[in-house]
């Protein structure tokens, strides 16, 4: 019976593996055509200043909706795009789209908004990354000073000379560098002395617990203090509650982003979100902090 059981388990295991492989292949096949079929779009999430309460910029986030598969989350398709190399054309498209739409939003709103764009490891390793960025900037008319590229700590670990060279060239263009998901990577702090970083984005896992968990609160406070000591702007990601917002205000975090402030939206809705935010009891950010 044990033997039979074992075989059944094996069959179940292999069936689920087979199913997973089939799903992956379906998704991969669909992703290959996503660009040509115009299934990709960009959403934009507002970022606000915690000192003025004003919207200061936006993070561009890829969205994929396939007629058969429905909406697929970036956390599912970005890794697949990385593995298959599809991230290169998709990333180029995302970059160009975000620069053009970001510039159009700046013009429409008459605001000097910063546009932040995520780069994944494979994109960062591309030889033509800098020309791609230059092309997106010149075609869109977006000022390089208003562009931030978001990279993770882990990306600074590999092949440091290449990395340094690319970051140097970005800086020469005037483009800013943000460290995304800060605090979750495998990296020493030494890169903060080697590379000129403009912003640290505190990972949402810390932000989420900061209002209730003393250790998470200590991590957030420490990241804020370190950033200020290094003259780097600090941004909290994934702010979901009033409590988290108050904590960040109290601790003098510079900027915040999250569903509590506004969810990522399509370009067409962004201006409305910004206007509502400006009209509203604006500034949640100027409310007196407790404690
Ligand atoms: P990320 O760069 O850390 O982006 C922040 C993620 O948190 C986004 O997920 C955003 O929608 C989500 N988020 C924002 N506010 C909240 C909140 O209050 N609560 C919660 N739970 N989540 C919040 P999204 O859009 O699913 O993107 C996931 C990741 O995919 C991004 O993480 C980024 O690493 C990657 N990604 C997204 N767009 C692009 C892109 O255009 N290019 C590249 N290379 N990667 C991208
Ligand atoms: Mg990001
Ligand atoms: Mg992040
Ligand atoms: Mg991320």
From TrEMBL:
<feature type="domain" description="EAL">
    <location>
        <begin position="24"/>
        <end position="278"/>
    </location>
</feature>
<protein>
    <submittedName>
        <fullName>Diguanylate cyclase (GGDEF)-like protein/PAS domain S-box-containing protein</fullName>
    </submittedName>
</protein>
